[in-house]
Amino acid sequence: MIAFQRLACAGMSLALLAVGQRAGAAPPPEPQPVTTPIHAVPYTPEGVEEKGLWMQVDEVERQLKTSPQVISDAALNGYVRSVLCRTVGEQRCAAARLYIIRSPEANASMAPNGMIQLNSGMLLHLNSEAQLASVLGHEFAHYEHRHTLLYFRESKKKNSTSLWLAMTGIGLIAAISVENGLFRYSRDMEREADMDGLARMAAAGYAQSEAAAPWKLFRAEWDGTAAERKRRSQTLRDDKVTGTHPGMAERIAYTEAEAARQPPGGETGVERYQSALAPWLPGFLDDQVKRNDFGASEVLIATLTERNHAAWLLAARADLYRTRALPGDLERAVGYYSDAIAASSDLPSAWRGRGLANLKLGNAEAGKADLKAYLARSPDAADRAMMSMLAGEHP
Amino acid sequence: MKQWSRGAVLGGIVALCIGLSAQPATAASLLKEGFAFPVDRPTKIAVLRPDVSVGTLRSAGEDEANAEWTEVARQNITEEMKTQASAQGLALDFLGDMKGADGELLDQYRSLFKVVSGAIARHGFFDHLPTKLEPKNPAVPSKRWRMDWSLGPGAAQLRALTGADYALLLYTHDAYGSSGRKAAVIFAAMWGVAAPFGVHEGYAGLVDLTSGDLVWFNTDPAIGGDPREKLGAAQRVRELMAGFPGSKPASQPAPSAPAR
């Protein structure tokens, strides 16, 4: 019932990924997904409900415009926008306003008024332009199918029904199944957005075979988190009656089935994606390392390293071990920092990290020397005062 | 006994379904001790974009925004604020949206103002913080709490940005019960659950842009006046602005206030 309340109040935007937390009974057989009509884009809101929803998200967007969390870099925004426009069509993409948010949570969302929010954590988890196209295609589908409005209508209908059923006392059991129907409705819409996104990326010439990789990475990270925290993995309770999104296993299955039907020759755009994101990835990964989720971060870093043996990945792995600081971690961190320093002369943060790790290990002189080297290499360091104190430059 | 407990459980479920909001005790507005507008120079107050929303409360508590009502209410409230301020000799400057670093600064302080307002609405009216309890005073034997909240001295940046001495923020939210809501509330009462027919809440706060201190704050979880109409908006603004520094002690509801 709590979840029911929350749903009743929410419904502002549909997220691509919802990390569920409630365990549920075995799901009933899924009925055929709803198919909702596509509306001509751009359109203006119609009726009291839709105008009200737009007004609310317009207020959110008004504040988002001046939020320091939004990445305003023209090159990055231009690149992501070009992928959106290629995927959904030049004319349609004019209806969408894109906001790239600096947040490590791997997520994206579409508001009913055309405001797309794409988190930096999602960009960190993608590997190719085709994967970005599938995410943006999914979000755009929510807009042109007016999913938020449909969900809001359905939630009013179902919540009212279950309220009256609950008030009869005896109808309470039926009320719970009505409520579960609302979650099913949400999953249907997400499935529809997935299929739409796949169709759009194929029409734009992208390889659908790319689309399942992020889902697989998320599953691997969930397992990594669970192993580190000695818990049951979320992959085992991902497919729930109260899930707002289809389970990852199901999403992977139908995505791969679609991809198998696509004739070969689709474009992946790995190089273009990697070169557009190159200046950003170290910072985005640093945000992830700071989430204190060692298991997931380690899986992610291992995956990124398979693609690219870059020195900054060694430094990120070193940061991960240094900040966990279990017995043996600091020694390993010093080793990774040293590898990073050997591999690149342009990584001041590796000197900083090795200095801090050495200080914690009791290697005071080596640590101070590393911190001095860090300060010499980054004249504009924001943490200069603190680091120079640790380096013994101030009495 | 068995009968009672089943009823209580069902009542609890109905309460969860229909959506309850706690009703804090109403009190007069809070004024920082000793505060008064300076008399030697004109006072300029910057008004941050008022947070206005009007809609419908659906049966299970879904709050459905209504863009048309909200637009009318926003205009009515804005006009009424100007009228009432000029009657008191105060100059209000309604700030528009700003861009770039200025917009970011304004937005940051508006967000902070909203968060602090939430704290005052709770701890100034509903429950009190022991840290704000005034020492015992034989002259005033009743318990008293300090009006002691601040956005910090950084708020002076807003003074530089707007040229105003004070900043005013106003929030009102209305959700009028649909007929389904009204029926549901009556039926819920049979299970012993009291739920509101609608939502009519608001607050207003004033910040001194030199110190960043909140100098005046008022809130009402069951405020009167229908802001969709001119007369109602006048009542709404009057009730929200009750006790505003320098105004007459106007905490009595206006004679035209409808019974709720």
Write up what this structure looks like.
The complex is a heterodimer of chains A (395) and B (260). Chain A is mainly α. Chain A contains 18 helices and four strands. Chain A has two domains: 224 residues, no CATH class; 87 residues, Tetratricopeptide repeat domain (Serine Threonine Protein Phosphatase 5, Tetratricopeptide repeat), CATH 1.25.40.10. In chain A, strands 1-3-4-2 form a four-stranded mixed sheet, with helices on both faces. In chain A, strand 3 and strand 4 form a beta hairpin. The N terminus of chain A is likely disordered. Chain B has 260 residues and is α/β, with parallel strands linked by helices. In chain B, 35% of the residues lie in helices and 19% in strands. Chain B contains six helices and eight strands. In chain B, strands 1, 2, 3, 4, 5, 6, 7 and 8 form an eight-stranded mixed sheet that branches. In chain B, strand 7 and strand 8 form a beta hairpin. In chain B, helix 2 packs across helix 6. The C terminus of chain B is likely disordered. The chains are: A mainly alpha (395), B alpha/beta (260). Chains A and B meet through helix 1, helix 2 and helix 7 of A and helix 1, strand 4, helix 2, helix 3 and helix 5 of B.
